[in-house]
Amino acid sequence: MSITPHDERFMAAAIRLSRWHLGRTATNPSVGCLIVRDGVIVGRAVTALGGRPHAETQALAEAGALARGATAYVTLEPCSHHGKTPPCAEALIAYGVARVVISVADPDPRVSGRGIAMLREAGIEVDTGVLAAEGRHSLAAYLTRQTKNRPYVTLKLAVSADGMIGRAGEGQVAITGPEARAQVQALRAETDAILVGIGTAIADDPLLTVRTPGLESQSPIRIVLDPSLALPLTSKLVETAREVPVIVVASEEVWPLSADAEGLPPSALPGISPTGGEIGKRRDPNSPVSDGDGFGLRQDVGQGANPDPISPLVGEMPGRAEGGASPADMDSRRAALEAAGVEVLYCNPYHPEVLLPALATRGISSLLVEGGAKTARLFLEAGLVDRIQLYQAPGVIGERGIESPLLTTDIPSGFAHTGTLMFGEDRLDEYERGL
Predict the structure, then answer these.
(1) pTM of the model
(2) What is the pLDDT of residues 274-296, one digit of tens each?
(3) 3-class secondary-structure state, position 413
(4) Integer Cα distance of 307 and 262 in angstroms
(5) What is the CA 124 to chain-centroid distance, rounded?
(6) How far apart are CA 417 and CA 433, in angstroms?
(7) Which of the residues 56, 77, 370, 432 is marked catalytic?
(8) What tens digit of pLDDT does each residue of 88-143 get?
(9) How many CB atoms sit inside 10 A of residue 431's CB?
(10) Residue 349: DSSP 8-state
(11) Is 121 a catalytic residue?
(12) Measuring CA to CA, how many Å separate 127 from each of 72, 76, 262, 268?
């Protein structure tokens, strides 16, 4: 059966539905499903909060007997493997649907075409690739973690009319207006984790939570690149670590050598969290691993990734590397942070090609890089940014301004301009790499 405008219309609705739970379905993708009979939607669902139940089983249950002979529109290929729930492909067969329309095939090796094959073997007509570009966009985080073993990275910058992102020595400076700031809160709410450098964490003392009323529970994991464990115990991040998780990424140089028999930092031990123990039952043998020195990914983990070590950020490497705190002091800082509920991850903060896969093992599929200039430049130079959100405000910072690492005139090659939106007086330009 050929694809019709009706198919595209219903798939577009399923894709819109799938966005409802972005960032809220754990390691599972947020999938939308519609059950349509005689041109009428008789069942609809999105992957449940936490990742289960899946969209298909919920939509089928809502449709009930009306699902027999109907068409199912699903944004991602139905699963075919037995996990904590039975396969969705089996459910579609059991309910007697006549046709399944799919936007995107699932790259998960446990599925990858098997769901489609199961449906066809049962005599169900299957059409794939409907609104595939839109479907991949809605599933970008999941697809990136599955195919590149790292989170999908969004870089957000707010730039003044004179090209600045802040003013030195003044902490947080409001550059954009309330409408743009509200939009950023919505972005945080659909993102798994948010990352800043220790310079920003100390200077701004941010919360990095979602403050939109009703969405506070959707605050992302907060991550700080903190090579020498300099994050103050009195900071808002530490004080709220038991409410919203905080991970500080410390340099492997400050890992206490007495902590394990080999003297290796946890980042060199695949699947091990320094404060939480085992974090994955089984590691994909095809996934990249460190060569043990913390510099070690010798394969590309993202389009445009730089395989060479990234130099430390000038001015952001305090501690032992500069003859600073002693090992005993570092142990004391680590213990105090952990006692406050902060996770300490030993993984070179200035090697995002190593850090990002480590975050992926923690189930983080999407990462928002939000500050500051040096951290933004780090990810840009590594070629590990997938999307850029560049807000431009009419105000001027003036003296002591902190220059933006990026302007609309110097967007890196490989990015396509995907749209412009206005929020009050602020302009948002968005750029993306192809998945």
Answers:
(1) 0.83
(2) 333 323 322 333 333 222 222 22
(3) coil
(4) 26
(5) 35
(6) 9
(7) 56
(8) 999 999 999 999 999 999 998 888 789 999 999 999 999 999 999 999 999 999 99
(9) 21
(10) T
(11) no
(12) 10, 12, 53, 44
